[in-house]
Amino acid sequence: MNTTQEHNERIAKMTFASVYPHYITKVERKGRTKEELHQVIEWLTGFDEKKLQKFINDKATFETFFEKATLNPNAHLIKGVICGYRIEEIENQLTKQVRYLDKLIDELAKGKKIEKILRA
């Protein structure tokens, strides 16, 4: 199943600040920490906690967020299904990057070891 243009545009315009609290809630509800969440986000994007806070304060869109990110060279190893989409089959680069992040957070919430999540 591939994404539609409308779907891709909606994701691009969504703000990181609007989704971030849901990330925290999801991982903490499953016994993981905000620090682990930040470790996973930093691995994927290169953004430390200070930079994340700036994106939140600026209400940056995912488009801006990933434009400024330095994606981890091993990000291509993130595979599987998230939100009904097989990551490897997503053609739109931005949508794929957002789904990478979703998948990592999902794995964290499911209790996977950090070393496995970070594709070490």
TrEMBL record:
Give one Pfam hit by family name.
DUF2200
On the tree of life, the source organism's domain of life is Bacteria
Q: Tell me which InterPro entries the record gives.
A: SP1917_dom_sf, UCP033199
Q: What is this protein called?
A: DUF2200 domain-containing protein
What organism does the UniProt record list as the source?
Paenimyroides marinum
